[in-house]
Amino acid sequence: MSSIKRQKRYEVSRQLGKVALGQEPADLVIKNGTLVNVFTGELQERVDVAMAYGRIAYIGNADHTIGKGTQVIEANGRFISPGLLDGHMHVESTMLTVTEFAKAAIVSGTTGVYMDPHEIANVFGMEGVRWMHEEGQQLPMKVFTTIPSCVPATFDLEDAGAQLGVADIEEGLTWPGVAGLGEVMNFPGVVYGDPTMSGEIEATLRAGKTVTGHFPAEDDRMLQAYMATGVSSDHETVTREQALEKVRLGMHLMIREGSAWQDVKEVVKVITEDKVRTDNISLVTDDVYPQTLLRLGHMNHVVRRAIEEGVDPVTAIQLGTINVARYFGMDMELGSISPGKTADILLIDDLLSMVPSVVITDGEVVAENGRLVKEFPVYQYPEKAFQSVRLQRSLTADDFLQRSKFDATRTEVNVVRVIENSARTAKMTAVLSVEQGVIQPDLNQDVVQLACIERHSATGQISLGFANGFGLKTGAVASTVAHDSHNLLVMGTNAEDMALAANELAACGGGMIVVRDGKVLAKVAMPIAGLLADRPVEIVAEEVAALEEAWKELGCYIHAPFMTFSLIALPVIPEIRITNRGIADVTEFKLIETEIGPVQ
């Protein structure tokens, strides 16, 4: 792997000065555009931008910088905008490799991202983080990494494939292209002085880098204690009131608009109605699916949504450019069009649509009219990355039978009830029939079988339970995308289809699958860590669409069911979850029995 060669400012400062004076020709000049000035908020008409050595050399009438070899793009009044930056996102949510994600996002105007690869960290630890980081370093897109902070999400209720500690964070912070610490989800640990959490934050602050946050709670004292430790941002804000409290305290507010979480409509009211200054606010995606990338775009979609909700277009662009760069201390390099800065520039016909006709990174055209015109290097993941689903043996239907501990024909059980469009679950109970010692699912109550299988160390550990809220009438589904520890999740109406689904995923290296009556209806193979596909976005998006249709064939009509399913094993969000160790009562932070007792 070799990182892409970018000229540092001090290496070319003299040459840039000569280009600005007309003593050397520019490499590329955009003529006669309307500059989106993110410093002043102005739209400046009839402006040229000259570029050389991958950087901006001159802004204004740039005729004097044009030489025989200079490429000239006639803007004809189109808007000249800085490239868009995403200050918080998980590439793994796209189901794509970093390269395939970058190809899909850069054509819509995203020229830089700050990724938190905590999904692959839960499978392969720092080794997996390094793979994705190295892949990002060789791309035309600027891919910065924030080192994952909470791996695993909890040590007490589940088993991940890896654990990260303070020493790992310290190592990662030394890598070129690392911007700081990934979202610190364990806010109680931070507030109450957990040694690992405190050590990670202190290491990041010593390195002079940024500590990004995750604070969904509504507790003023906890919030301020959290901030006082050094955590400086949050992307979990969902109400105008929360937003106002955080910006008043000086926390950097990241307003999220992804595929699953769509917070712009409510949270931008802090701008449109409360009229707060926007210097300390930015836009992010967090989690985006491949279909969203193809249909709506990436950061340009988030900026567009802010504009639709009443934010001034130039302000919205500031939220997706200079404000992001400034938060990470990179505004002297990125996020604006200014002499000496990196030449990451968009030509946009219409600020309301935010669809770029030309995308430039490092002073070179990389995309035109939604198509790549520059080749992206290929990153080869090691063989180990394709060997993450480790089961002790092939599974049988018998492995998925929940046997009663009591000699009764009916028994009461704890059930994980999912809530549509929410990461939360609810704890409920159901009375189920027992036949030949096996507790039966009850489709009339919408109660189906649920299993979580340890898949990192081939321990053979299987936990069984029941789920409600998906509406399945037949068949089974399975996924190795199971936040955050990413064990093998299986759910179904019958044990035979559940065994087939699990074994099929193990055979292809992981992913998501839907089966019925012994046949595979749809599958998205994700052989890299059981999290990433090794195919282009167009193919993966088609496969995911087919998967969604297959869920419907089983009777499920909730929105984004595979996302809801993938969160059913996350034991840090209330109320009840399944992990490889058993049923977790998150409110009490303990494992509980699936079966409560016999019913007469």
CATH superfamily of the largest domain: Metal-dependent hydrolases
Poorly predicted runs = none
The proportion of residues forming helix, as a percent range, comes to: 25-40%
Number of strands: 30
Give the C-alpha Rg: 25 Å
- How many domain regions? 2
Outline the structure in words.
The protein is an alpha/beta fold and 600 residues long. It has two domains: 99-312, Alpha-Beta Barrel (TIM Barrel); 385-598, no CATH class. Helix content is 26%, strand content 27%. The protein contains 17 helices and 30 strands. Strands 18, 19, 20, 21, 22, 23, 24, 25, 26 and 30 form a ten-stranded mixed sheet that branches. α4 runs parallel beside α6 (195-206) and α12 (299-308) runs antiparallel to α13 (313-319). It is elongated, with a radius of gyration of 25 Å.
Relevant terms:
600 residues, alpha/beta, TIM Barrel, ten-stranded mixed beta sheet, nine-stranded mixed beta sheet, 26% helix, 27% strand, elongated
Short recap of the structure:
With 600 residues, the chain is of the alpha/beta class. It has 17 helices and 30 strands. It has two domains: 99-312, Metal-dependent hydrolases (TIM Barrel, Alpha-Beta Barrel), CATH 3.20.20; 385-598, no CATH class.
